[in-house]
Amino acid sequence: MTDKEEKYVGSVSQQECEIAETALLEFNRGNYNNCLQEINKLENRTFDFKVSHNKIVAEYYKSELKKTEAFQKNLNYLLNQFSIRLEKLDDVDHCVAHFNLAVVYFHNNQYTQTLRIMERVYKFIEPMDETLAKQVGLLLVELQLSVKQIDKAMTLLVYLENYFTNTSVTELKGGKNVGKEQSDKKSTTPVEESFKKKLAVYKARCYLMNHNLESFKKEVAVLQNSKVSYCMFQISNVTFK
């Protein structure tokens, strides 16, 4: 990308911001046709990676997640178009496209390729948007369990639990030292509670795969008390950013 193009991408008008917000709103509502109509209003932003990426994702959802092969080809074409190489990944904003590609590989049972992508993307988990960061963490845990890297999965689960549930990500990124007592006083949102339960399910799976039945039973008991049945939590959604 030339300096002129980079300057153009960095310059976003108020109207374009409003269009992008409307597109995201329509996407979250499941109105993918309306979402694409809004995105098409930004067609003059030819050199904007996010706009191109979001259009690909919206089109995939419009197909009811059926045109996976086309989705994969479009993502690869996008990454090549913007000369974004996994081994040289240095921009957190580009992680979402690689993550979405990893999701496709994972569901195709291409674990080696998925692991190669996820190990690189995971390095950006702290500066990453919290929602995407959680998805990255959960997919990597699922992947590690799929390839029998149980100890790595357990280590990652401990990190995710400490990073996302003991103290808010905002406080961590702001450099504030918040004690556990203060953190415990904060109310937990349904989204946060759901994430905690997913971590607990994965911990139970780790214990079971390591034949640690005592710890497994304890974890399952906690889940049952939370009205959560022991089941697999699969990553099934790609991310619209």
Automatic annotation (TrEMBL):
Its main location: cytoplasm. It is found in: Cytoplasm; Nucleus. Keywords: Cytoplasm, Nucleus, RNA-mediated gene silencing, Transcription, Transcription regulation, Translation regulation. Coiled coil: none annotated. GO terms for biological process: mRNA catabolic process; negative regulation of translation; regulatory ncRNA-mediated gene silencing. InterPro entries: CNOT10, TPR-like_helical_dom_sf. Component of the CCR4-NOT complex which is one of the major cellular mRNA deadenylases and is linked to various cellular processes including bulk mRNA degradation, miRNA-mediated repression, translational repression during translational initiation and general transcription regulation. Belongs to the CNOT10 family. This is CCR4-NOT transcription complex subunit 10. It comes from Agrilus planipennis.
